[in-house]
Amino acid sequence: MIVQVALVSQSASISLSDVTKVSAALQKQATRDFGPIWNVQSTVDAFDTLEDVPIGYWPIIVRDDVRQTQKAEGIHLDKNGQPFSLVQASEAWSVTASHECLEMLADPFGERLVPGKAPAQAKKQKRVEYLVEVCDPSEASEYTVNDVAVSDFYTPAFFDPIAAVGVRYSFTGVIKQPRQVLNGGYLSWHNPVDDHWYQITWFSGPKPALRDLGILTASRMSTREMIDSLTTPPDRAQKVKVQKNYASLVASSGTPKSSVGRAHHLHTEIKALLA
Prior knowledge:
Oligomer: single chain
Radius of gyration: 18 Å
Shape: globular
C-alpha cells in the first residue's frame, strides 16, 4: 500500500511556492532515505488549500497559531481515526514537517510498540515496550535534501539488544548505539511490570534524565498524543516564531464535495485542538 501525504500551508508567511519546495524534499527523503529502511512506500504532495486535498491523503497542515495553545503541534487523529499533523510556522518548519511526516509514515496511529531491553538508566526494569517515534531521540539532528533542512531519524536497528560494529542506528549516523538519546531528544516506553510510562529526556543538564510519567489513562487521544502532551523539547520551543496575522481559511469553489467535506471536519477538529 502506498501512503499518500499532503502538505498544506494555512500560514500567511509560507507561500505555495515554499510548500512545493519542501514537499519535493520530503518526497525525496521518504522515497530515497526512509522508505527502503522502514519498508514504507509513500508520496508527499503540495496543495494550495485543505479543500484541495483528496480524501485518502493524510494532511500535514502548517499554521501560525499552533503553539499558542498547549501541545497542539504533532500528529492527531480526526473523528474517523485518520491521522493528520499540525506544524507551527517557524524558521525551522521544514524540519518539523519532515519530523511529523516520517513519524506518520512509521506509525500513523500513534500506538506502535517495539519490545526491547530497558535503557541503562532504568536499572530495575528489564524488558519494556518502546513507542515508535523515529525522530525523537535525535530531535536536534538534521540534514539537507534539495538544500532543504529535514529531520534525522533512527533505523529499526535502534532497538537491537547490543551495539555492533558497522550498524547504522540513525540515518545520519549521529546515534552510535541502540536506545541512545542525544542532547535535545527523548525516548518513551511502557514498563509492563508496573504499567507506568517512562522517558529518557535530555532537555537540560550534562546528561539524560529518567522521567516517570505514571499510568496513562485511556482517552480519545492516541498514546503518542498523550506522550507528546507531556513533553516539550526545548529546541522546538526556541525555534518557534509565531506569526500573529495568519491567512483565513477559505473554502475553494469547484472542488469535489468529498474533499470539501473532509476539510470542513478537519477545520472543526483543528479549532477544537487549538481552543
